[in-house]
Amino acid sequence: MKHLVVALVSAGSLLVSVAAFAQSTSPAAPAAAPAAAPAQESTSAAVPVPGAKRAACQSAAKALKGQDRHDQMQLCMAQAHLDCLKQAIDQKIVGPQRTDFVKSCAG
Asked: How far from 74 is each of 50, 54, 81, CA to CA, in Å?
């Protein structure tokens, strides 16, 4: 039980740091884009490195074994997917572009 609490706290802090980093870099991309540029062009610059969130989840679950590790990976990836979906909604990405953005973001 102690290991699960430690893993959850470390995963939570990792997600918070990823969210803080995403917020600190997001305003720069739209400001650099011209005012007449379509929304799709400005969102392509905000796509994070593929696999970064998956790697973060793997490192957070590294200390766990068996079912606990599997459960932690599922929770972490679900949170990463949700964070990417929120980012797509904030950037007003719709349709197939939203699906592609969430897939590439969550990695």
From this structure: 18, 10, 10
What total number of domains does the chain contain?
A: 1
- Provide the pLDDT for residue 67: 95
CA 80 to chain centre: 4
Q: What is the pLDDT of residue 38?
A: 43
Residue 26 has pLDDT above 70, yes or no: no
In this prediction, residues 79-86 reach a mean pLDDT of 94
Burial of 49 (0-12, 13-18, 19+ CB in 10 A): exposed
Structural domain that includes position 74? 2-106
- The stretches of 45-95 forming alpha helices (DSSP H) are 52-60, 66-90
pTM to 2 decimals? 0.53
Cα–Cα distance between 24 and 11 in angstroms, integer?
20
